[in-house]
Amino acid sequence: MNKMPSGSAQDPRLPDSTDATDPLVLARRVLAGHTQAARTPVPPAADADGAQPPLLTGAEAVAALLADGGVRNVFVYAGTSELAICDALDRSEGIHLANGRGDKESAFMAAGASLMTPGRGAAVLHGARGLTNAAGAVADARRNESGTLFLVGLPSSGSARFLPPHGEHGLLDGIGRFADWSWEASAVPERPGERRAAAERFVERLRAALAFCTAPPYRPAVLGIPQDVAEKRWIPLDALLTTPLAVPATDLRQPPLDALLDELRQAARPLFLVDDYALHDPRLRPALDRLSALTGAAVAQLRYRRGPMLFERLRDEEVTNFVGWLNPFSPVHRALLAECDLLVTMEDRNIYERVVGPLPGCRKAAVNTDPAKVLKNEYLRDDEPLVVGEPALILTELADRMRASGEPAREPWFPAKARTEQLVSPERATAAVEDGRRAVARALAATLAAWDRPALVDDSQMFGGLLSEHYDDFPAGLRVFGDHGAFVGGGLAYATGLALGEPDARVMCTLGDQAFTNSFQGLVAAVQEQARVLFVVCNNGESVSLNKQAAASYGATDRAYLANVSHLAYHQVADALGVPSQQVVVPVGGDPATVQAGLSQLATVLEKSAAEEGPSLVEIVLPSDPEVWKGIWLTQGFEEMPPANPEGPA
Fold first, then answer.
1. Distance (Å, rounded) from C-alpha 421 to C-alpha 507?
2. Residue 327 C-beta-side C-alpha neighbours within 13 Å
3. Interatomic CA distance for residues 564 and 512, integer angstroms
4. Does residue 315 carry a pLDDT above 50?
């Protein structure tokens, strides 16, 4: 069967010229509205119970519904329980099935394929050992709000009670807690009447899983399918015609939205504080720019200062009133918080004192797709509005109502100096170090700027912190995906999945050395699929972040357990796996001529590596000297800072 290339615009539901008796062809025709197909017999004829309508296996139903639901890339590291599902997916027009070469890697790749387009990717995981091996990836996809489906092949229902090696009691109940949605199919009923109801329930649950993955806030779903349920031919074609679940719409007439509108009209000094989750929706930027211009509001974005630190950020050319990362070290930014009379958070997940410092005592409001994530941070009072729904739609509605009432746009209330304070720090590196760090960031930025649709997946800590300091050097339109789950070693597979799920995008993946050693197995699938990813590994010799944290907390001493493996060259490991790879040494903070030579070589190597048709890798060797990383990574949280000084902005 000729399979549609990944990313093709052809609708996989439409009938084609292939065998009209193929159950998957008939299923596509049914789902495309060709009801005659539901009455066409499928050879070999009917099930043993004598049922006359055409029947699909559970695996064929899964494949047809995934293609109809927009899934285009499926990753698998198959065991015996999943072979029927894999065969059906491999025969399906519109779906590309790839061997992820590991269950954990397959789960990460599926999540990566769904970063830009929720529901684009899915993974088939082996029951028990495969799913438990991928548990961290499932939890990480949930924290990063990647809407992807994890199908789990379970032991046959008849043998499950004997606990075969690939079975565990309560497996989906346990791992399903990492996903917020899970369901396990029951055995196929023996009685024909009960079987029809079970088939409709199976279809409805699979549709519900897909709807869950593609409705904000986006999260993964886990669906378990016993082997016999996948293999048996028991689902009537017309059972596929159950009505797909509607994605809940944002309520633009909810009372909290009216209350927020009143708050904005009364506020003289509003401040919007954005978490990067809001930026997953490209409609957010113009909506926020419009509303902040109407209200004169300042706009700041939460910055993460330890752990993963590089995430997508607003720019002032997108939102005119944007003042940059919120910086609690800056007296001007602390004054912004002290003087604002309305603080509105956008898609808050982590706006609590340890991350942002003490919040002001003014009126507050929140706009969020996941209200529980706001309430956990304990800053909203009962009488303050929490507007639930897609922020872009809510901000657009608020701006429309303000404009319709004839209210004039207000001048920004905050000082121009607030725009230059995002990098103020009590811990500054030398000028030579800061110049060298910026030059490294600019070398990567120049590569990204040469691509039409660039995306950056970060799986580093200190290196990501370095890059985040120079975010303004990166090109406009760049999509950035950091790891809110802090799974060191997921980024390589995320980036591979993203490149395969979005073939028009060009992907760079920045990795720490520890992340590479925990993930290079994923390069096998990247080579196999010729994923267009430029992997950039920062080798600074040791876990610089943990050494800094340990020294601050427990005192300086030799900690050999935080050092890299001596004589392990990451570029050679990648090269042995078939990835064109090179190493560049940039001794930031060292002899200026040597540093400049390293930077020149880096530019040349990046250009050559970016020209590869498949994956490529560049290892950048940077010093481990703490002075080179000074100012990056906080050893204490901002909850220990004094409250903002209400002197008023200068």
1. 31
2. 22
3. 11
4. yes
Paired tokens of 299:
């706009």
Nearest Cα to 24, choosing from 69, 82, 84, 65? 65
Round to whole Å and give the CA distance between 171 and 180: 14
Prior bond of 412 cis (ω within 30°)? no
Q: Which long-range contacts (CB under 8 A, 24 or more apart) does 352-356 make?
A: 352/377, 352/378, 352/379, 353/637, 353/638, 353/639, 354/637, 354/638, 354/639, 355/302, 355/304, 355/305, 355/637, 355/638, 356/273, 356/302, 356/326, 356/328, 356/638
Q: Encode pLDDT of 135-176 as tens digits.
A: 999 999 999 999 999 999 998 887 666 677 777 788 888 888
d(CA 153, CA 223): 9
Query: For the residues 487-507, what does the mean pLDDT come to?
Result: 97
Q: At residue 16, does pLDDT exceed 60? A: no
**CA distances (Å), origin 578, targets 350, 520, 573, 617, 619:** 40, 12, 9, 10, 15
Q: Which residue has the higher pLDDT, 549 or 122?
A: 122
By the 8 A CB rule, do 13 and 67 touch? yes
Domains defined along the chain, listed by start: 23-241 (3.40.50.970), 255-424 (3.40.50.1220), 431-629 (3.40.50.970)
Q: Which of 15, 59, 58 is nearest to 38 (CA)?
A: 15
* Rounded Cα distance, 577 and 144, in Å: 29
Mean pLDDT of 238-247: 81
User: What stretch of H or E contains 60?
Assistant: helix 58-68
pLDDT of residue 95: 97
**Residue 106, Cα to own-chain centre: how many angstroms?**
15
Structure tokens at 283: 């409609």
List of residues 6+ apart from 251 with CB closer than 8 A = 257, 388, 389
**Residue 81 near residue 153 (C-beta atoms within 8 A):** yes
Which helix (H) or strand (E) covers residue 438, if one does? helix 431-449
Cβ-Cβ contacts under 8 Å for 261 (sequence gap 6 or more):
398, 401, 402
Sequence letter at residue 222: V
Could you tell me if 149 and 71 are in contact, meaning their C-beta atoms sit under 8 angstroms apart?
yes
Residue closest to 126 by CA, chosen among 148, 97, 155: 155
- Pair 443, 599: CB distance under 8 Å: yes
Q: How far apart are CA 570 and CA 278, in angstroms?
A: 35
Output the pLDDT for position 643.
Answer: 56
Q: How far is Cα 399 from Cα 347, in angstroms, rounded to an integer?
A: 18
Reported as a pLDDT band with limits 50, 70 and 90, residue 14 is very low
* pTM (predicted TM-score): 0.92
Q: Phi/psi zone of residue 631: left (φ > 0), alpha (ψ -120 to 50 degrees), beta? A: left
Banded pLDDT at 647 (limits 50, 70, 90): very low
Alpha-carbon gap, residue 460 to 448, rounded angstroms? 18
pLDDT grade, residue 544 (50/70/90)? confident
Type and span of the H or E element at 332: helix 331-339
Please tell me whether the peptide bond between 43 and the residue prior to it is cis, using omega within 30 degrees of 0.
no
pLDDT per residue as tens digits for the range 188-199: 999 988 999 999
CA–CA gap between residue 581 and residue 495 (Å, rounded): 17
